[in-house]
Design goal:
The structure is a homodimer of 455-residue chains. Chain A is of the alpha+beta class. Chain A contains 14 helices and 20 strands. In chain A, the strands form four sheets. In chain A, strands 1, 5, 6, 7, 8, 9, 10, 11, 12 and 13 form a ten-stranded mixed sheet that branches. At the A-B interface, helix 1, strand 1, strand 3, strand 4 and helix 3 of A face helix 1, strand 1, strand 3, strand 4 and helix 3 of B.
Chain lengths: 455, 455
């Protein structure tokens, strides 16, 4: 067959690139598990009736059908028809309801899986991509300290990834909605439309937002107050003072201010490359958030949009008897790393897990070489025996091409009849015992290499 | 919404079960990487034209389409229409062709991913399931020692899994076909139909196979010889003597015998729970195998069919200029473990990664408790702070219900004002420093628990 061409929107990686992606997933998982989040996987498909519940995203859903389904059969109902999940929240809500009798609440879970959306592909937007979600779910009630927890866990997880500086912006819906109420915006509908208008601040600028608010019926003074609130930022509870200074009050505002102050006291500030900062313009478009909201951008790559986002929802799921509130954050693994991998800003130090290539003197020496390789593996050192007994120069160059740092010479391959290992980056060769020699820790696994351009 | 019901053929696990599945995947990956196999992932979808190339399995393919695709548009060609992959071999062959210019050959890769088939679900047969494949692929040629390698690597990987005794049966197509040729079965078609008939030996028994062979035109004596060959088994090169004793010879038979003897010398016999044994009845139905073939069964659960299978194929892929021969084995992760998890023969020791629950004296003590938890995590100990400051007895029982082995009491929660840790299985409580205390290694991760019934 002719050489296949890539499918737009479905990124795929060469082995060295995939090694970086795998390490990212491993690191996320490690952090989530250290904090007691249990890993689950849900099936890739859900009934269309579940996937279409939110309405607004139905254009993006991929329907799955058997090739030889009977074309004359009555069309299947959306309860029976299946589609690929487009996020991990809808399947998780279903999982919680389906298995609630077997789960202990509050239930803390992480989930790292592919999701699919039939969107037009572009940089940072894919049709198949990997998401890493953490959520804590309660049955009936869920204390606020879990909001603090998910922010801390995701900030810690992101701080361990090979990424440029990140800015995790947090806000609180109660604060914003309470502020609007205190200003006299007095219907749910008016509060919601004000929120939607302010959410466009970064896209259209303050003048256009003010015009929208006034057109929506707000007075000039109220519109200005909304914009002044949206301009407030900070990493500690001075943010609360700045809001108070605007002279507005309402019970809901007080509640939101308390929550935001608690969050900032515990999690505000900088950890490695991640800054957690209150930014009161952050609204998150989705209706179901009811308290804390957060989104993270890469500093300098804000045009890629948020790489991580989430919030508190009072009703993740409900079965009529019990309502399950939750708080969670999703991190876009593909969305964040695909652009970095694609332009070479990040790659792996080698195209194989092997830290050592065991050289071969002759095909007859293969069994002996295999034994020495097995001795290295028994101590956790990834290695492989050369595929052919070529001249040593050729074997070394083959290792070099794949980025393997060490070549091992079994006893029968050295002048003095004792095994030796060569660091082919320096050319230094030393006698070595396969039962005890160990490479430097940094060479044991594939390293993550950043290009100079991206620091 | 009402409680959702499971989807037949799409197994899903509770957290303790998922922990076992995750450890299986980790262990497979670790072994593959120790042997220098590079991990890749391919997208879930392939063009239908690729998926339907083999013809025989087209009924099983799931087609993927956008919900709002224009119903009046001309139907898409199979080059553009997409389906979910039903194995990892078809996508890997496409990957090799697409990226051949960027790969180093021989290319050793592993791939652990979900695949989908629209089959009727039953025990051991699922619609969504996880496969773990290893393959070595060459450009133009691939030496036989790679056949030995994949058998050894998969046997080693399986020997590290929590499984009952396994029997990995190997054979060689050249040997069998050469034997038939030596008997005078002299057309490709007759050789193939003889192979297919013998492949049914376990299902229909020797008498029915003999009848089929004779009906196909073989003499009684030739049919008997085919059955005598199929009866030969053994873990060493005595198998070769047994074949020679049948008094048949042909150049292809010699080649096959040499290969099988080499394989048995290096990999025959028992490693842990895995026995590698030549069984000359093994044929593997698929046409594309050209030399080594292998399949693995669980001893005592042969009715579940093979849990791992593979072989040598002279043409994994071809772009017209270069042909890529390969040898590989696939291990059915879901197929093997779903029945064991579903009937409780295996489960995890706890429903959370947390080895420690940090108890809480009061809500005010939460920040201090969080600091002690962070000190434990800094040394790789998964832990969590109690969700509420209930009575200690309640906090301990909550840990017990989830299988968490240790409860940590921060300084302000103990009588003497020094932190302490209690093993809640024994009740033993000792003073402990969060900067140095470590649980026994066996308690650090979720353990795999086998039920007595399955040993």
């Amino acid at each position: 067959m002719p050489r296949p061409t890539p499918l737009s929107g479905y990124p795929e990686w060469l082995p060295a690139q995939r090694a970086v992606e795998q390490q990212v997933v491993d690191e996320l998982r490690r952090t989530f598990e250290l904090h007691g989040f249990a890993g689950i996987e849900t099936r890739a498909v859900e009934p269309m009736s579940q996937l279409l519940r939110k309405g607004e995203i139905d254009k993006e859903v991929y329907v799955v059908s058997r090739l030889h389904a009977d074309p004359d059969a009555a069309p299947e109902s959306d309860d029976r028809r299946l589609g690929l999940h487009f996020d991990l929240t809808v399947p998780f809500a279903r999982y919680v309801l389906e298995h609630s009798g077997h789960l202990q609440f509050p239930f803390r879970r992480y989930q790292i899986q592919k999701v699919w959306r039939g969107e037009r592909p572009q940089e940072g937007r894919y049709r198949e991509f990997c998401q890493a979600d953490i959520d804590v779910v309660g049955d009936g009630a869920l204390p606020f300290h879990h909001d603090v927890e998910v922010v801390e866990v995701m900030a810690e997880a992101m701080s361990r990834l090979p990424l440029p500086p990140l800015r995790m912006q947090v806000n609180n819906r109660k604060l914003v909605q309470g502020f609007y109420r205190g200003l006299g915006v007095d219907t749910d509908e008016a509060v919601a439309s004000t929120l939607r208008a302010v959410d466009k601040l970064d896209k259209i600028g303050p003048d256009a937002v003010r015009a929208t608010l006034v057109a929506d019926g707000l007075s000039s003074a109220v519109a200005d107050a909304c914009l002044r609130l949206a301009a407030i930022e900070g990493t500690d509870s001075s943010v609360v003072d700045a809001v108070r200074a605007l002279g507005v009050s309402s019970p809901l505002l007080d509640e939101g201010l308390d929550e935001l102050a608690t969050l900032l006291d515990a999690a505000g500030g900088t950890r490695g490359n991640v800054q957690v900062v209150a930014a009161l313009k952050i609204a998150r478009g989705l209706d179901y958030y009811t308290g804390t909201v957060m989104e993270t951008v890469m500093v300098g790559s804000e045009h890629l949009g948020s790489i991580s986002a989430g919030g508190r929802y009072d009703a993740l799921a409900s079965d009529g008897r019990t309502t399950y509130p939750g708080v969670g954050i999703s991190f876009g693994v593909t969305r964040t790393f695909a652009p970095l991998l694609a332009r070479g800003a990040l790659t792996g130090s080698r195209s194989t897990p092997s830290a050592v290539l065991v050289a071969l003197a002759s095909e007859e020496a293969r069994p002996a070489a295999r034994r020495e390789a097995a001795a290295l593996r028994a101590r956790g050192i990834p290695c492989e025996v050369a595929p052919a007994a070529q001249k040593y120069g050729k074997q070394i160059r083959a290792a070099e091409r794949r980025g393997i740092p060490f070549v091992w010479f079994p006893a029968e391959a050295t002048d003095d009849g004792a095994p030796a290992v060569r660091d082919i980056r320096t050319g230094e060769q030393v006698p070595a015992d396969p039962a005890s020699w160990t490479p430097p820790a940094a060479d044991l696994r594939v390293g993550v290499v950043r290009s100079d351009a991206d620091g």
